[in-house]
Please model this.
Amino acid sequence: METVAAGFGLVEAPRADAAGNVYFSDVTQGGVYRLAPDGARSTVVPKRRGIGGLVLHADGGVVVSGRDVVHVRDGERRAWTFPASWRRRRACRRRPRSRA
Model:
C-alpha cells in the first residue's frame, strides 16, 4: 500500500474521473478534495461536514448529500430541493412493531 496524501482525518467516498483525478470527502475535518494524477490537491467543497454521499455530475462538478443535496461546479453551489410529498416523516410512516 502506498500513501498518496496525508493530513486528512477520516477519508471516505473516493471517486475517480476520466482524467485520473480522485475526489474524496474528509468526514472529521470536513470538505471535498481533488487529488490530481501529478499529486496536486485542491479543495472542491470547503469545510462541509456530514457528507452522506459523493458522486461526479455528468455536466461537471460533484454532487454531495447529507443534510441537503448540493451540486458544486467551479465554485458555484446549487442546492437541490424536493417536493414536500417526497419527504418522509418518520412519525407518520413508521408502523408499530408486533411483539410476537
Notes: Residues 11-93 form a domain with the Thrombin, subunit H fold (CATH 2.40.10.500). The radius of gyration is 17 Å. The beta strands are 11-16, 22-26, 32-35, 41-45, 53-56, 62-65, 69-73, 76-80. The chain is about 5% helix and 40% strand.
